[in-house]
Design goal:
By secondary structure, this protein is an alpha+beta fold. Helices cover about 60% and strands about 10% of the residues. It has helices spanning about 5-30, 40-55, 55-85, 90-95, 115-130, 155-165, 170-180, 185-195, 200-205, 210-220, 245-255; strands at about 100, 105-110, 140-145, 230-235, 240. It has a 5-stranded mixed sheet with strand order 1-3-2-4-5. Strand 2, helix 5 and strand 3 (about 140-145) form a beta-alpha-beta unit. Helix 1 (about 5-30) packs antiparallel against helix 3 (about 55-85), helix 6 packs antiparallel against helix 7 (about 170-180) and helix 6 (about 155-165) crosses helix 9. The longest helix is centred in the N-terminal third of the chain and has 32 residues, at about 55-85. The protein is globular.
């Protein structure tokens, strides 16, 4: 059976190669820490740099050992996550929005970003799956706004969370993806009005959304989620990271 860690093996292989090289370049240009008004002995600095140049394998081995320790920690977190998803899915679901059958044997965790165009495309497929397999799938939404490249990802996530407090997360979620090119404060308020939300509470809840979104982001980072959309599934036939195009087959094979 495939596991979460299996999917990340190519990524870890890349990091094992690239990171030591990058770090070695950094070390070669490094100078000793010193107080603001003191200077480094040029001769001592040159001696240290010469040692590093002549024996770069020492630096590389140290970095690789550290990376292996970090990889092992990530693998342990990933395995624990999958085990929780199998034995006690509610611990993974937590207070996140869900849709589909609460009795389903198949739980699909989605890490998503409301400004991500690929997530908008995935949203269409997921809606079809929920219609075609109403008794076989429970979808759980986790926020992973890529704030470094999507300026509206976090505000959109906050708005969806505020709508969730009034029981309208999925309607708001659908409207955000449908109007993805218009993301902004005006749209968030307009959707809230169209869904007949209490606007006073909605605006107040916008300021309270950060902890819940932060929890999702921290989970994604612990699992080394590389981007969005990202799916982890647990079903009677498969458990682990899954590609969107494979979910239908998994559901079809589930009794």
């Amino acid at each position: 059976m495939s596991t979460l860690f299996d999917w990340f093996s190519p990524l870890f292989h890349y990091l094992r190669i690239s990171t030591p090289i990058g770090l070695l370049c950094l070390v070669v240009t490094w100078s000793f820490p010193a107080q603001a008004n003191s200077t480094i002995d040029p001769q001592l600095e040159q001696q240290v740099l010469q040692i590093i140049r002549e024996h770069p394998e020492v630096v590389i081995e140290s970095v690789q050992a550290y990376q292996q320790q970090q990889q092992q920690k990530v693998k342990q977190v990933q395995q624990a996550f999958l085990e929780d998803l199998k034995t006690n899915p509610q611990t993974v679901i937590g207070k996140s929005p869900t849709t589909g059958s609460t009795q389903s044997k198949t739980v699909l965790i989605e890490f998503s970003d409301f400004q991500c165009p690929y997530c908008a495309e995935a949203h269409k497929t997921l809606k079809e799956l929920l219609v075609n397999y109403p008794d076989k799938l429970r979808l759980v939404y986790k926020n992973f706004p890529l704030i470094s490249i999507h300026s509206e990802a976090l505000p959109a996530a906050a708005a969806a969370w505020a709508a969730y407090q009034q029981g309208k997360f999925w309607e708001y979620h659908d409207a955000l993806f449908t109007n993805q090119k218009q993301l902004g404060e005006a749209l968030y308020l307009d959707i809230a009005k169209k869904l007949n939300l209490n606007l006073g509470k909605f605006k107040s809840d916008l300021t309270l959304a950060t902890p819940a979104i932060k929890n999702d982001i921290q989970l994604a980072e612990k699992l080394a989620v590389p981007g969005t959309p990202f799916f982890v599934i647990n079903s009677p036939t498969f458990s682990g990271v899954v590609q969107l195009e494979d979910i239908k087959k998994i559901l079809a094979d589930t009794k």
